[in-house]
Specification:
Blueprint lengths: L3 H9 L12 H17 L1 H14 L5 H9 L1 H12 L8 H18 L6 H17 L6
Helix pairs in contact: 1-2, 2-7, 4-6, 5-6
């Protein structure tokens, strides 16, 4: 079983180092793909962790703790954007958790009939508009 730091390291090893702009479609998709690959490659562990946190119930805070721990990289990149003066749809901790929540539930349910590319393209488009806003008419 990979510990949280090992899972984060596995995801981080799939990305270039340096500042990441999650409002750039390619960088956002790369980050989503790295997280998706970790979830896919560690499906049994991720399922056990998800189900354990769900079984503990909402009052335990276990699911929120797991979600915020597992989305720390997203949060850090969102904080970078905020610190650069970029407008975000909400607090970086909450936005990162929303991103992770969507991904973890999709990974858990394994949507039948959808390829990883279709899922990642849809997530990228959905999240990008929430991060960067709709393009202004030219």
């Amino acid at each position: 079983m990979l510990a949280p730091g090992q899972r984060h390291g596995q995801a981080g090893s799939q990305l270039d180092s340096g500042a990441h702009d999650l409002t750039e479609p390619g960088q956002l998709r790369d980050h989503l793909a790295a997280a998706w690959n970790v979830m896919r490659d560690n499906r049994s562990v991720m399922t056990a962790l998800f189900e354990s946190a769900m079984a503990a119930g909402p009052a335990s805070g276990a699911l929120w703790a797991r979600l915020t721990q597992d989305t720390a990289v997203f949060r850090e990149h969102l904080e970078y954007l905020r610190d650069q003066g970029r407008e975000l749809p909400g607090d970086p901790l909450l936005v990162a958790a929303v991103m992770g929540g969507i991904m973890s539930l999709l990974a858990y349910t394994r949507p039948p009939g959808y390829s990883a590319d279709a899922i990642l393209d849809t997530l990228t488009a959905l999240l990008l508009h929430g991060l960067a806003g709709r393009p202004q008419p030219g």
